[in-house]
């Protein structure tokens, strides 16, 4: 049975920001009815961002993030504030918590919300201590629970939602789609990886016939099918094998390319892949993975991609590798960024990274489009998106 619990990357991220001791942690504990964050009168009690993932009416699946006070001027406090700033990269909606006073600290935070394009609201906490509550603005009491439901309703009004589809808008009911899934040393035992399971789930919901097959069995599957498949979706690592095995009149793409489209940067990735042929010997290349896992001996990011890049270009490069939430803000000096499909990152984090690269003039591609280009099949891998992409 497939789970209805969305992955972390699909949850609405709500960040709580403000000065020390304005009640951010108490407010989150009140909203969740749990002791998510340690509460104390001592400034700086929240030392690192604290996350809580849950179902929260009327928002559904969310991740709430409590951040350290943004007015801690100590050396350690500055490091904590830097960690809080990283939260902004993935925050969908910000809640600015105050104790009723607006200072330069709040104004700096608002400027950051504006810079990152994050919708926000201001929650004036500790209203239970006021003799008269102003009629304008949102006044809450984390200690007594006053107006916390109103806060959530206002957050819900800021949430625009998303309606982008991974695959179901590209196929029709009763179509046959073949999913080519290799099983090698890097494949997790007992489960599919997120892009594979997400695509399969959406196909099932769209009443599409999904046929799963290992890469070693792909060539023979077409003789066993009574109808021509409308599409083959493969793991990017076996793009060459899949292209050779699949009939030319059948669309072919990869899970990574579909995820790049779903996250909103396929056009950037496809154009970035074309810059591979312009790389020079010794150029610096940044290879980024959004998830964190133990590198295997045949790891795609650190082993397979560099090997194929150098074979394709006949040149040697200087590589930098990052994973998880790590992404350098200073990108000057890199000639190319190759990113994963971003399945473990929410859309805002992915687009933040794309924006950083664009502002600094660094081309970006992703695993799927890069591997398609290196196998000489980039146009074919994008053909199913012909209405939107012509490369």
Describe this structure in words.
It is a single chain. Helices cover 33% and strands 19% of the residues. The chain has helices at residues 24-32, 75-88, 104-116, 148-158, 194-205, 218-224, 239-245, 255-263, 266-273, 300-313, 347-359, 367-374, 378-382; strands at 12-18, 50-56, 60-66, 93-98, 120-124, 138-139, 176-180, 209-213, 231-234, 251-254, 284-289, 318-323, 334-339, 364-366. Helix 3 (104-116) links the parallel strand 4 (93-98) and strand 5 (120-124). The strands form 3 sheets. Strands 2-3-1-4-5-6 form a 6-stranded mixed β-sheet, sandwiched between helices. A 4-stranded parallel β-sheet has the order 8-7-9-10, sandwiched between helices. A 4-stranded parallel β-sheet has the order 12-11-13-14, with helices on both faces. The chain is an alpha/beta fold and 391 residues long. The chain folds into 3 domains: 8-158, P-loop containing nucleotide triphosphate hydrolases (Rossmann fold), CATH 3.40.50; 168-258, Rossmann fold (3-Layer(aba) Sandwich), CATH 3.40.50; 265-374, Rossmann fold (3-Layer(aba) Sandwich). The chain has 13 helices and 14 strands. Helix 10 (300-313) runs parallel beside helix 12 (367-374). It is globular, with a radius of gyration of 24 Å. It starts with 11 loop residues before the first strand and ends in a 9-residue tail after the last helix.
């Amino acid at each position: 049975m497939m789970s209805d619990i969305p992955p972390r990357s699909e949850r609405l991220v709500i960040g709580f920001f403000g000065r020390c001791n304005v009640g951010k942690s108490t407010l989150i504990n009140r909203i969740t009815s749990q002791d998510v964050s340690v509460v104390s009168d001592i400034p700086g009690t929240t030392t690192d961002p604290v996350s809580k993932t849950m179902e929260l009416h009327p928002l559904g699946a969310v991740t709430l993030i409590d951040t350290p006070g943004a007015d801690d001027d100590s050396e350690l406090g500055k490091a904590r504030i830097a960690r809080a700033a990283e939260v902004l990269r993935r925050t969908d909606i910000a809640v600015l918590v105050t104790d009723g006073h607006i200072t330069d600290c709040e104004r700096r935070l608002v400027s950051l919300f504006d810079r990152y394009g994050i919708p926000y609201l201001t929650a004036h906490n500790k209203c239970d201590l006021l003799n008269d509550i102003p009629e304008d603005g949102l006044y809450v009491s984390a200690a007594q629970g006053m107006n916390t439901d109103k806060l959530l309703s206002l957050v819900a009004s800021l949430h625009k939602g998303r309606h982008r589809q991974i695959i179901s808008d590209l196929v029709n009911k009763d179509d046959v789609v073949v999913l080519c899934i290799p099983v090698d040393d890097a494949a997790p035992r007992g489960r599919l990886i997120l892009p594979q399971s997400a695509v399969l789930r959406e196909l099932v919901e769209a009443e599409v016939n999904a046929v799963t097959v290992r890469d070693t069995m792909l060539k023979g599957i077409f003789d066993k099918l009574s109808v021509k498949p409308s599409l083959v979706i493969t793991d990017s690592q076996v793009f060459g094998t899949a292209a050779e095995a699949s009939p030319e009149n059948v669309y072919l793409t990869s899970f990574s390319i579909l995820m790049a489209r779903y996250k909103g940067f396929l056009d950037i990735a496809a154009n970035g892949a074309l810059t591979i042929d312009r790389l020079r010997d010794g150029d610096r290349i940044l290879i980024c993975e959004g998830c964190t896992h133990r590198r295997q001996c045949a790891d795609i990011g650190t082993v397979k991609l560099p090997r194929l890049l150098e074979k394709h270009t006949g040149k040697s490069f200087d590589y930098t590798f990052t994973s998880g939430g790590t992404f350098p803000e200073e990108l000057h000096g890199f000639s190319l960024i190759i990113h994963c499909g971003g399945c473990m990152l929410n859309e805002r984090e992915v687009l933040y990274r794309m924006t950083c690269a664009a502002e600094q003039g660094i081309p970006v591609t992703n695993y799927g489009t890069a591997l398609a280009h290196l196998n000489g099949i980039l146009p074919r891998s994008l053909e199913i998106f012909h209405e939107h992409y012509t490369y």
